[in-house]
């Protein structure tokens, strides 16, 4: 393949192609180059049949004709090893989301105690509403900081071992909660389920693949209805509940005349304070003194989604654009917290004037400038970081700057509160549109990029296919940037939707693809499903809904997929998890779970076929509800 063909095969975007050409010319290797070097991958690892859980091994399971290597040294077979590995994979994802959620509890606690200068409770009404929902006494009338302190205690307790069920589980329809109870799937405590997953997968504990998968589901549910939901709700309380707002997307949001600060990672506790620091008069003056017209904060990955939802700041790119954002030569600082931040960014930043700044003790990178941010010092530290970016700007080499493309307009900010507000305070108009067949169903498209798939090809094609079929798409995570760049996050994209969906979008002035937030904000989709199911008096597994992660890569995406399925939402994955080495685990994931939780996984790399599969589920569910297809 010619070099330009190779570059075009890596991504569907012009801004990516331009930066891949530049990277090549400047001798910079990217995630795609390293993926090529790593191909072919180890077959045992791909199939999930390798185990390193003790040092009698490592062991690999093979289906050899001579019958050797069928069992690990301890006697574990392929089913047990695959299920154990998958369980730990899910636990990793649940831990990531939930530890992020814990950081929000700690921040709200510091605010309640008056120990977090610069932070405040921006949505007091939501604080009171959530506190009342979770049982805080006199939440409507007591001082906000006292209410927050009580809410903090309830949220911390959800991480512990003294509960029989997580507090937000009460949002799920009773019939679903009863099912979880019967199956032993009710999540009790976030840390408890994660720790128990690690315990069960130690040598000599849970050696039954079905039992392991049930606990994997329980661990994932602790993420979706616990850690992630706490993360979302407390972020709204602290930083404001998102409302629809306009913004822009792609590498064109970077500016030649401004100090460009790219926030990367997941936690709005850092990125919100960076944004606040850039608005301080003294800091702005320092930027002007350095010759910059402005300070431009733009987002990468999910902390970008957090700021986009609440503040309308532009998105420079998703997962596979993060290296290329530095290659523009215009990124003065990358400010990272944690998750999805490729270590390669440190090396690439070192090829330019870019300051790569880490802020979390949980996310240290050798070679980075570490400025540790905690609620008590965030204001001062974030100011310091912005000054580092201004200093870097003075060292920017204009000859190496190339900002490709023009920004594309998007509309974001569709929290459940904003959606209900647009509907007049009740989900009834939405339900009416579903009953009438104008909206045939909903699919949450979530997650990532993966260099195994041409960047955003599956994310965009699936989204287009679904809206064309009158299926509304709810986007979170890195899919957002893809849908935005494709022009699907504006009300005018109604023209690309089927007739029924287009009419609903036009009457409400909303896009056919609603951006609902970051990866933890998939909890908003769970809550919306629960609300629709409860209003209709059915289970989530009866609703015409689906989920998909066409280009997923991470443990967190697997946890999301697992909690979606366990909540009754059929879920498509564009790539299989590493479970194919066990026929029993694979059969359970693709079929068996259907009989247990009313939903299962689908694996299909072709996004058009994936749309067919999701549509078939929606049609079947509509029929069961007595609705026309
Ligand atoms: S736990 Fe069993 S299968 Fe895994 S490495 Fe040890 S001996 Fe091998
Ligand atoms: S969508 Fe995937 S790649 Fe993007 S930030 Fe979330 S987990 Fe990371």
Automatic annotation (TrEMBL):
Reaction(s) this enzyme catalyzes, per UniProt: CO + 2 oxidized [2Fe-2S]-[ferredoxin] + H2O = 2 reduced [2Fe-2S]-[ferredoxin] + CO2 + 2 H(+)
GO MF annotations, alphabetized: 2 iron, 2 sulfur cluster binding; 4 iron, 4 sulfur cluster binding; anaerobic carbon-monoxide dehydrogenase activity; hydroxylamine reductase activity; nickel cation binding; peroxidase activity
Superkingdom in the source lineage: Bacteria
Protein residues bound to [4Fe-4S] cluster 1: 42
Annotated signal sequence range: none
A Pfam family matched in the record: Prismane
One of the GO biological process terms: generation of precursor metabolites and energy
InterPro entries xref list: CO_DH_a-bundle, CODH, HCP/CODH, Prismane-like_a/b-sand, Prismane-like_sf
Residues binding [2Fe-2S] cluster 2: 42, 45, 50
Keywords: 2Fe-2S, 4Fe-4S, Iron, Iron-sulfur, Metal-binding, Nickel, Oxidoreductase
Annotated residues for binding of [4Fe-4S] cluster 2: 51, 54, 59, 74
Keyword ATP-binding set for record: no
Enzyme nomenclature, EC number: 1.2.7.4
Residues that coordinate or bind [2Fe-2S] cluster 1: 42, 45
Cofactor(s) listed: [4Fe-4S] cluster
Binding site for [Ni-4Fe-4S] cluster: 266, 301-302, 340, 448, 478, 519, 554, 556
Sites where the protein binds Fe(3+): 519
Cross-referenced PANTHER family: CARBON MONOXIDE DEHYDROGENASE, HYDROXYLAMINE REDUCTASE
NCBIfam families with a match to the protein in the record: CO_DH_cata (TIGR01702)
Name of the protein in its database record: Carbon monoxide dehydrogenase
Native organism taxonomy: Bacteria, Pseudomonadati, Thermodesulfobacteriota, Desulfovibrionia, Desulfovibrionales
